[in-house]
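re: ur question from yesterday

yeah so i grabbed the chain u mentioned. its 217 aa long if i counted rite. heres the sequnce exactly as i have it in my notes:
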Amino acid sequence: MSQVNYPIRILLVDDHIVVRAGYRRLIERQSHLQIVAEASNGEIGYQLYIQHQPDVIVMDLSMPGRGGITTIQRLSSRTNKARVLVFSMHEEPIFAEHALLAGASGYITKSSAPEVLVEAIERVAQGEMYLGNDIAQKLALHSVLNNASTGIKNLSTREFEVFRLLAEGLSTTDIAAQLAVSHKTIANYYSQIRQKLNVNNTAELIRLAIRHGIVKI
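ran it thru and got these structure tokens back, copy pasting raw so excuse formatting
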């Protein structure tokens, strides 16, 4: 457990300004918590982390441009001091698995009670790992029932991000523009993803994503 200096300094990263305003009202009621900056996407969040060096980053996963998982991995590659608490609408355990593999220190869902967010921030700031009860139970069940043949758990962080965007109906051209990489790079990822998931085309990929809760219908 790490020594914590108060107030705990927090960076909020979420693309919805109304949602961030709600977080701010909740967090600022706590005298020992302080929001030092806000970002609307992962790229801005990364730059603001470098600038402000917050104690905890509270980050969504689904954002325009660099998604949360890719941003977490980028932060983890830069420093082992970045403590990221994922606060996401995604309740499927596969999202938590990939976020934790990328380097997140905690994962809670947006259906969690307000006091859970406060506790999670405190625990992550102390250097602990924190999972909300709902996602922890699903992860435990998923580890027992998971069918390795799906291949989803074997996707790399970037492959999972591209998989999610493909499943949401974006073209490879759109994904390349959103992630600021070449179309050829995304085309290569698409080929690798199809091979790992044992699917032949985008339609099969989308059906697989729906079946495993990656996207909703």
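noticed a couple things. The CA atoms of residues 109 and 181 lie 30 Å apart. also Strands lie at 8-13, 33-39, 56-59, 84-88, 106-109, 130-131.
anyway ttyl
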